[in-house]
Amino acid sequence: MMIPSFEEVMQLTRTISGEPACTDLDAQALYDRLIQVPAGGIVVETGCQIGRSSSLIAQLARAIGFHNIHIDPYCCEPPGVASPSVEYMQSWVTMMRNIGGEQAHEFTFLCMRTEQAAWMLERLGPIDLAFIDGDHELGGVQVDCRLIAERVKPGGWLTAHDYANEGLPGVKRGLGEYITDEKWESHGVSGSLAMWRRK
Question: N or C: less crowded end of the chain, CB within 10 Å?
Fold first, then answer.
C-alpha cells in the first residue's frame, strides 16, 4: 500500500474534532515522524480522547505496517457516575475500526492508565515512536516518561503534545526533568508538539 500524503490523512482527521485538539501544524510534525517508522515497528500513544492524533497514527500504521498501541483510561469516574468519557471512547473505537475496516482493523487499545499498562509495555520491546498526550499533570508526565519514553529505541522518536501550552506547565516541566542531552537530540517544537530523537 502506498503511504498516503499528509493532505490525504487529514481528510479524515479534520472531520474528527476541532483543530485545537491537534492543530494542522502539530499533525504535520507528527506525520513527518510517523512516516519514518518501519514496517513491523511499534508506535505507542498515551491519551486518545477524541482521536485526532489516533487517526493519523492508525492510517499510517495501515499503510506502512507498523503496530499501533493506544493507552487511555477514559472512564475514571466511580461506577454509576455519568461521564462523557464513555461517549468519547465509543466514538474513538468506531473511528479506529472504520479506518481498518470491519474485519481488517489492527490496533491495540489499553483502556487503563499508563502505570496499569506497565505489564504490557514491559513485553513490547523497543518502541519506534512514542506520542505522549495523556495525563498533563507533572506526575502523569513523569510516569509516561519512565514507562514509555524510556523504551524508545536509539534512532526512535519521542513526541509530546501540549509541550508549548502554557496552561499545562506539568508537560514541559516533566519532560524537562527527564530529557538529557546525553540521551536525546532535540528536534524543536512545531505548534505545541515537541520532538526528540533517541541517540
Answer: N
Q: Put the strands of the sheet holding 193-198 in their side by side order.
A: 108-110, 67-71, 42-46, 127-132, 152-160, 193-198, 184-190
Helix (H, G, I), strand (E, B) or coil at 3: coil
Share of the chain above pLDDT 70, in %: 91
Report the candidate in 195, 179, 198, 144 with the shortest Cα–Cα distance to residue 26: 195
> Helices 52-64 and 6-16: crossing angle, nearest 10°?
140
Three cell numbers at 50? 477524541
H/E run at residue 34: helix 24-34
* Upper half-sphere CA count for residue 192 (Cβ side, 13 Å): 20
Whether the model clears a pTM of 0.90, i.e. scores above it, the answer is yes
Residue 50 has pLDDT above 90, yes or no: no
Amino acid, res. 20:
P
Q: What's the grid cell of residue 137?
A: 499533570
Query: What gap in Å lies between CA 87 and CA 93, rounded to an integer?
Result: 10
Residue 81's pLDDT band, with cuts at 50, 70 and 90, is low
Q: How confident is the model at residue 84 (pLDDT cuts 50, 70, 90)?
A: low
**What is the Cα–Cα distance from 124 to 190, expressed in whole angstroms?**
29
DSSP annotation of 74:
-
